[in-house]
Amino acid sequence: MKWIREPLVHFAILGAILFLAYAVASDLFAEDQARQIVMDESAITILADGWERQWQRPPTADELQGLVDARVREEVLYREAQAMGLDVNDVVVRRRMVQKMELLSQDLALLADPTDADLRAFLAENPDDYRVPPRISFSHVYFNIDQRGPAVEDDAVRVLEELRAADPQPARAPELGDRFMLPYDYRLQAPAEIQRSFGSRFAEDLASLEVGWHGPILSGYGLHLVHITERVESRSPEYEEIRDRLVNDFNRVRRDRANEALYEGLSQGYDIEIDEAAIEARALPTQGS
Known about the structure:
This protein is an alpha+beta fold. Helices cover 56% and strands 11% of the residues. A hairpin with a 4-residue loop joins strand 3 (212-218) and strand 4. The chain is elongated.
């Protein structure tokens, strides 16, 4: 067993002993740290400052002691929950930690306020998102299909001819039709507002109409004669009108891009394997496939 007397063997054994001793000491040190809770001056100052912000005065000695005791209690229970693995596979914990990572990246992305040059460039890239929609003022006469039955369209056409023949033409004549649950008069309504009240088909039909009486036009309620009293065409707003909205939208895009960049960067350090066959087997088939 001459190899036992070789200097290299002695060096290897000594290295192994030192490594083992370091590992044991590190574990013991980490364990000691895990069992230690320190409420030093900086930690107590944070608690006191938080109290003062909320109550607009410094805490009393008893109040501050209560804050410290509560913080220690929270830390003890938190560490014990971790040691028991209560945070493992907890959906709420996972989502909260993911949210905190994203909030961290968002805070970094929003350190600097956007300049007017940034906002004008953003507006130039997305002009359609900020166009002021057209608006229409109108009154209508309602005809109830359920009450009038097959004669409803003939009734509506007859009333329309009367209204167009009148001199001067009345701006409104709801009394010539049936009772309606919504208002008869609408002032400068955008297409989306008209759609919410009467449905998409009705809003689309009104979009192309000029000032005057028109109809019959179908909605989800029945037939209508519509008198367009005013049209305001769509326009591009002035920069100053929408600057606050641009700031919000610009920052939202920056936050989204920061989150995506964070994920892309971190995911490069992982070997990600996805069983596409399992997805296909468990998911509903895509429409049209």
